Amino acid sequence: MSDAKSYELFINGKWRAGGSRATLPVINPATEKVFDSVASATVSDLDEALASAER
Fold first, then answer.
1. Which end of the chain is more exposed for a tag (fewer CB within 10 A), N or C?
2. CA dist 42 to 1, 9, 17, 34, 37, Å?
């Protein structure tokens, strides 16, 4: 997993960690190995993303 990347949330034009600071693994279905991780969004993160998208 040395080449794995970690992705943050893109909200209101900026990359940032999710409110919970937790991440979720992204698994390659062919190998069943983790190859990346993504930030886990909270309800607050989703509300903020929706509000910025509506502007």
1. C
2. 26, 11, 10, 22, 16
β-sheet bridge partners, residue 15 = 10
Name which of 36, 47, 39 is nearest 12 in CA terms: 47
| Res. 1: pLDDT tops 50 | no
The token pair that represents 29 in the structure block: 């279905």
Alpha helices per DSSP H over 1-55: 43-54
User: Residue 45's CB: how many other CB atoms inside 10 A?
Assistant: 18
pTM score: 0.75
Summarised one tens digit per residue, pLDDT across range 8-29 is: 999 999 999 999 999 999 999 9
